[in-house]
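User: Predict the structure for this protein chain, please.
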Amino acid sequence: MTVDKAAAIRYKKGQKAPFLLCKGRKHMAEKLIREAEKFNIPLVKNSELLEELIELEPMEAIPEELFEAVAEILAFVYSQEGRMNL
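Assistant: Here is the predicted structure, written as structure tokens:
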């Protein structure tokens, strides 16, 4: 699998905002994808959102203007996982 960029987001109930957990380019992006697959973490492709996320620093809160796009992804992931505490 060839991946140019990847990012992982995290949200915990009670937090004000989701945050960028980690990001990577090229080899690091491929490693992030492999780790997600290893732990059965759902992968979602959203190139436009990824371009915005890759500019953030790890552990940085997601900007409010991206909340809607991130919320859609989190809702999808939670529905796939059948749990709300990822």
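The helical segments are 27-38, 47-53, 67-81.
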